[in-house]
Amino acid sequence: MDRPPTDSSPPADERGEATKSPAPRPASGHSSAPSSPITRVTESDLRRFNRRELLKLSPVLLAGAFAIKGLREPLLAAGLRLSDWASGKYFRKSRLAPTFSSSDVVALENFPYNGYDVIDPGVDLEKWTLSVEGLVRKPGSYSLAQIRSLPKVEQNVRHICVEGWDAIGSFGGARAGEFLDLVGADRTASFLEVECADDYYESYDMDSVLQPQTLLCYEMYGIPLNRGHGAPLRLNMPTKLGYKQAKYLVRLRVTNVLRPEKRGYWEDQGYSWFAGI
Questions:
Q1: Quick one: how far is CA 73 from the chain centroid?
Q2: Among 56, 90, 124, where does a domain finish?
Q3: Total of domains in the chain
Q4: Staple partner for 234: which of 79, 125, 134, 247, CB 3.0–4.6 Å?
């Protein structure tokens, strides 16, 4: 997953990125146009006028509300909730992210490393397993060999970081949906939660997890993930921003209820939860 840096600047990256940023009044005067005949305004006219004027004033009222400190955070939170809701309604599992030819792929050594904390949390690759729990028929620990036994998918897709960069990379792994079938996951469940070796955490709507380009990724450029890119297992989700693409996976949980204050490392600090592209 990529995650944003930990300095005091706005965080960014695959697992942590984001940026935030911020009209002359016309002069008054007298009209020289001839006066119109006086007409009677009906009740219906008044209703139409009020609706029209209210719509015109809405941006002004909203801007004024943002100037009130106590309203700013609730308004921002409401805006994010609306954005996430609309993104979820628009999303379709059948909609694929663009794929690219090998000539478009950036060299592996030029594909950026990003992390919210450390580039290498020191995973013991020999002893590593993926713990699976929640609404599954076969909970337990799964080895990398079991994940690699599933059909391998390779894709050249764009990774977009909210920090302001993007790169086309080559990723390989098993479809997340096929792994969920292996463990007997309830496909009608609402969410998938993940935890990582560096204490990062994320959650996803099930439709995004079951999208065919969502991979439990164990390779980049045809070779095993290196430690900086999330070894031994990360998510590759080309329909999401980078901070949703968790690295160093150690636990998956299928659930209908997200844990309070554990929706996502950056989301719990105000980032969009859906984070679709």
A1: 20
A2: 90
A3: 2
A4: 247
